[in-house]
Specification:
Layout (H helix, E strand, L loop, with lengths): L1 H34 L4 E9 L9 E7 L2 E6 L5 E6 L9 E5 L6 E4 L7 E5 L8 H10 L10
Parallel strand pairs: 1-7
Antiparallel strand pairs: 1-4, 2-3, 2-5, 5-6
Length: 147
């Protein structure tokens, strides 16, 4: 009798282990499907008033008050973000900084993809030091914060 009870207990244990193993695989499959969803591409270029493209401008995309992303324009003044549309909020906006120009703030709602963001020299101009500080500080955007 003890052998039968022991055998049944082992059998139930093996079945429960197999069940847990299969349910774990389903979770991984769901995660893979979730991680492969489409990201929205937001891209444009940064130019001055004369249309000259500005290389190495620092572009910060504020998704909300606690979430941001960063990009830097290339030699052609182009930048690009790939973002999950669920992260975009009504208050999402760009902040573009480059030395010798005024800081440009632009609502994401008012931005048309593949269009230019125009920097001008009206207002307080960004110094080289302020530009470098901003350029370095936005590198932390998009990193997951641990709580």
């Amino acid at each position: 009798m003890k052998k039968i009870v022991f055998f049944c207990g082992c059998f139930l244990f093996l079945i429960s282990c197999k069940f847990n193993e299969n349910s774990g695989n389903n979770t991984e499959k769901e995660t893979i499907v979730t991680d492969t969803k489409e990201l929205k591409s937001i891209q444009g270029k940064v130019v001055d008033r004369k249309g000259k493209r500005i290389a190495y401008a620092a572009v910060k995309l504020y998704l909300d008050e606690d979430d941001c992303m960063n990009a830097y324009t290339d030699n052609e003044g182009l930048f690009k973000f790939k973002v999950d549309e669920l992260r975009i909020k009504d208050q999402s906006h760009f902040e573009v900084v480059y030395k010798g120009y005024a800081i440009k703030m632009l609502s994401l709602r008012n931005f048309v993809n593949d269009r230019s963001i125009i920097l001008d020299k009206k207002g307080k101009l960004v110094s080289v030091v302020d530009y470098r500080v901003f350029y370095e500080s936005i590198k932390s955007c998009g990193r997951q914060k641990t709580k």
